[in-house]
Q: What sequence folds into this?
């Protein structure tokens, strides 16, 4: 009976060591796996289109991971460089004019282009802030990502009372691959200082990984000068 506490203590230590090792190894293993999976996916798409004389695998007779990804990045960069000058812009406009004449293709192309332009635009404020809204009922708060002010028809229809509406995206926990797009009055949103990356960690972990927060010190009030000093001057 006296050995029972020692055995329980040893089992507890082994369990804690295993969990600590899992926390250290699992993120690293998943990151490496995702990285190589993405590289293999890019290679499988691009490598077959590389001419044989430009393919380093032809000369070394070995598979070089990342060749297709590097070629894709260089190709996209060159296309972007050429698309900025007059000749390249004319070619792009001519290609887009052909796509816009195709009934189904033009809808897909315009939608994808608009999404990419919104996400990649340097001046865009999409998902640069986090906030809290009362959901699903008063007194219960949900984490949301601010997508920007309402615009277009939505702004005209919803801003009739003079209160500015803001678009927010509320993803589920723990896999934020889907969610709800809602338009909420700006006064109903509690803005947070945490970054979207910190908000994503909080969301994915189910609230276990909360970012550190140091409240900002209150501003020191500036007292007016005494009347006797101002009178003497």
A:
């Amino acid at each position: 009976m006296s050995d029972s506490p020692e055995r329980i203590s040893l089992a507890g230590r082994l369990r804690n060591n295993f969990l600590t090792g899992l926390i250290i190894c699992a993120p690293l293993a998943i990151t490496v796996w995702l990285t190589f999976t993405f590289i293999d996916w890019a290679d499988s798409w691009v490598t077959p289109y590389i001419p044989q004389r430009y393919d380093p695998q032809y000369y070394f007779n070995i598979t070089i991971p990342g060749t297709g990804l590097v070629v894709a990045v260089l190709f996209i960069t060159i296309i972007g460089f050429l698309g900025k000058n007059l000749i390249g812009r004319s070619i792009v406009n001519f290609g887009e004019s052909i796509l816009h004449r195709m009934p189904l293709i033009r809808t897909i192309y315009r939608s994808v282009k608009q999404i990419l332009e919104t996400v990649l635009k340097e001046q865009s404020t999409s998902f640069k802030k986090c906030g809290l809204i009362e959901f699903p009922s008063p007194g219960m708060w949900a984490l949301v990502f601010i997508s920007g002010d309402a615009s277009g028809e939505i702004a005209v229809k919803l801003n009739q009372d003079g209160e500015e509406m803001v678009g927010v995206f509320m993803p589920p926990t723990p896999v934020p691959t889907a969610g709800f797009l809602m338009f909420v009055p700006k006064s109903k949103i509690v803005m947070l200082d945490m970054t979207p990356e910190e908000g994503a960690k909080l969301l994915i972990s189910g609230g276990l990984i909360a970012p550190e927060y140091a409240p900002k010190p209150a501003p020191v009030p500036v007292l007016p000068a005494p009347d006797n000093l101002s009178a003497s001057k």
